[in-house]
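REVIEWER CHECKLIST
Item 1: Sequence provided? yes
Item 2: Single chain? yes
Item 3: Sequence as submitted:
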Amino acid sequence: MGMMVLSKYYGADFQKMDQTGERASEEMRNEIRRREPSIRPFIHEDKQAPTMAGDKDIQSERETQVFEIHGMKMLEAGIIQLAGNNKELCMNSMLSAHHALRIIAGDAQNRREISVVPEEAQNVLKTGGSVTTLLGKDSKEKVEEVLKHQKLNKEARTNKTGNSAFDTNNQQQMNNQINNA
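Item 4: Structure as written out by the authors:
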């Protein structure tokens, strides 16, 4: 029953989902944040992530903290609702907390992936070889595509350079034959 609820919430077979594969769009992140006002009556304290502390602060870490706090708020509200036997609101709070935690796990996984892939492929992962055990399926496909194109471009440049050297050598041989004749 629980897996069915999660599958319905995410619109996919939950048991087949990559638990660190959530790459939430800005729209989805905003949708999750919009759920907070509905739980304010249930929570003891309105926790907030500290504002940015200047240029040296890390925006992605603050974003992670915002979602961690959202998860804590939703779990707190869910516990209170469960104690009050309000199963529907409890379920909504738990699903929202679960989704926030999936986003946190996905963001952390994305940062790990970016740190281990070749520099040429990092930009593909920021929009969202031997590291296949770490990368998620979508990320593997993106990296493989970038590396394939990079290899083809390198081979094309090598062939062009090689052909130019070959052509120059042939031209010199022909010039020598003409001059010796």
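Item 5: Key structural point noted by reviewer: The radius of gyration is 27 Å.
Item 6: Recommendation: ____
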